[in-house]
Amino acid sequence: xxxxxxxxxxxxxxxxxxxxxxxxxxxxxxxxxxxxxxxxxxxxxxxxxxxxxxxxxxxxxxxxxxxxxxxxxxxxxxxxxxxxxxxxxxxxxxxxxxxxxxxxxxxxxxxxxxxxxxxxxxxxxxxxxxxxxxxxxxxxxxxxxxxxxxxxxxxxxxxxxxxxxxxxxxxxxxxxxxxxxxxxxxxxxxxxxxxxxxxxxxxxxxxxxxxxxxxxxxxxxxxxx
Length: 225
What we know:
Blueprint: H1 3-22, E1 27-29, E2 33-36, E3 47-49, H2 56-62, E4 70-73, E5 86-96, E6 108-110, H3 114-124, E7 140-147, E8 150-159, E9 164-171, H4 181-191, E10 197-201, H5 206-211, E11 215-224
Parallel strand pairs: 3-4, 9-10
Antiparallel strand pairs: 1-2, 2-3, 4-11, 5-10, 5-11, 6-7, 7-8, 8-9
């Protein structure tokens, strides 16, 4: 298996671990499956596959404690339609090899204050995910471009050890057309120099990442019931 794909999935698992810890949600994993033992934060799956050989029966057994929720099929190998699930999205894992050094891009800043974090989350509909404790967590860096005190572009960088995870890239209003992934890569190079960067995307969000030098690694499908 491509080690880059393995790194992307592992980076996602580490994000899930840290986000659930922020919310005091216990989790379990045997190295093949990751499972939230209580309701996870919004937009997060209750079950995630970590290796491509995980079968449908194991996934369904892990879902038994949850009446509803989603399954992150990290390798796109499952069909859960017969089991009452709908396909929420069909995404592609991506990786950029990163840069050893860069200059912090003009206009970007780290979110350090609870009030700005609240505004960031309100703009991204993420208030129940990035709680104020994230500002003191060494693994997270919340990025923003701010216009007249209002965040108009944002992203989150997560420290996953040898890899940096990029997620929750958003822009609003006129800033939609000015989002520059080269700027985000520069931020990542300053924060985590020399590390590869992973993310996933689908639809219209995928092409800009590929144009910025990311490579596609394989599918991730999320099923929901």
